[in-house]
Amino acid sequence: MSGKNPLFPVLWLILLVWVAWPVALFCAGIWIILQPFEACFQFIRKTNNFLEKLITWPRDCGKAIMDCSPNCPAPY
Q1: What pTM was computed for the model?
Q2: 10-residue block means of pLDDT along the chain (76 residues)?
């Protein structure tokens, strides 16, 4: 961990717990409800693709924590 700022993992952990997980949990419910209708309507497919990016945001936060990344993990 030489040359990496230990403050960034703490910031991304706070982001993960207080923002990314609640957003992902909320979006997951909507995503599950819309999933069966994705084949019928194109706008639902686009909505589901966006929701899927938000649902996988905690994974990106975890990667940023492990890498001590100075870049904020963006959900999109």
Answers
A1: 0.86
A2: 80 96 97 95 95 96 94 89
